[in-house]
Design brief:
Molybdenum Cofactor Biosythetic Enzyme, Chain A, five-stranded mixed beta sheet, Alpha-Beta Plaits, 17 strands, 40% helix
Length: 408
Amino acid sequence: MSVEIINTGSELLLGNTLNTHLSYLGQELFPLGYRVSRQVTVPDGDDIRVALAEALKRARIILVTGGLGPTTDDITREVTAELLGLPLVEDAGVWEGIQERFARRGLEMTPRNRRQAQVPQGATVLKNPNGTAPGIYILSNWNNEETRHLFLLPGPPRELRPMFENSVAPILKKLAPGGATVQSRRWLVIGMGESKVEAMVGAELLAIPGLELGYCARPGCVEVRCIGNPEALEAAERIIHARLPTQVAGEGLGSLEEILVQRLAVLHKTVAVAESCTGGNLANRITNVPGASEVFLAGYVTYANEAKMHALGVPAELIAEHGAVSEPVARAMAEGAMREAGADYGLATTGIAGPGGGTAEKPVGTVFTALAARGVETRVVKGVFPTDRKTFKDLAAQAAMDMLRTAI
């Protein structure tokens, strides 16, 4: 059954508000047996009517977000009712709930709040315990064709997401078509470009009957996405691991830092980081992962040479002889972070982010990443990432995390 999503709101198109609805709804719909075939974002106003009329011609299931509030720019319910030829009627239960919510919070109502109690005649009200705008579910034989399932949902994520999980998902489960089970898997490939990954595995994966294949390139990695029945996915997994035995960082998780935190937790190991050129990016990415507190002990952002000496014990003569961006200094930083924090591993980065500061020997984009571990010789790798500062920081942090991933 084809599914389309219409996101409404001028703030989405002006860039003032990040539209997270498609990502959320797409991920929630897939396990239920649905794929989003089309998504559009339209401003407040008559464009909603145009988008909805177009969607009704194609899709059996339509989800519309936003425009259910009390203000003059909230016209989704009115436009929908008009397009479907349904009168708006006041729902006594919704109106009572709105009044109770205002009274409970000690807020004063305005006459416009009563608009939110109006629903198209014959529609099913979807309760909203987190706001005043109810959701609306409409069955419509629009233009005397197949039944359309239309869901009008509030715009704020804190209202939409619970409503989808508690009210919309149960309805869609009953509507879900039967047949073969289709699943999705993702593998994260580190240190290779998109075209190289495709050259290594693409032809064999495409030869698997019924497998849908896609790639998503990110700084320092490529996500390989496969959709198909369980047998096809098992075959894909065998090919990917056989052709890319060391480059595959993990399956199912969205980032290298998630994989790293998960594996360190399983091993009951800890890490500390010492950063110069990445300026805290490495620590930030690791601590963005829930559960990082089990494995991450400390982060030292030692941007200045004096900080490297005082916080990590890097000898001044080492910096004077080799320079701050060098293999010996990277090694001393990693060992200092491990020692000072009492961690099992120490990761360090020192490099030249640019646009200035490069030399013939050490051009802009040069970075030394180091990994220290107890009882093992510290490893240092030199890399060159000639790009903008932000991307450089991401790539350098990625290289450091992949050193640790490979080691464990």
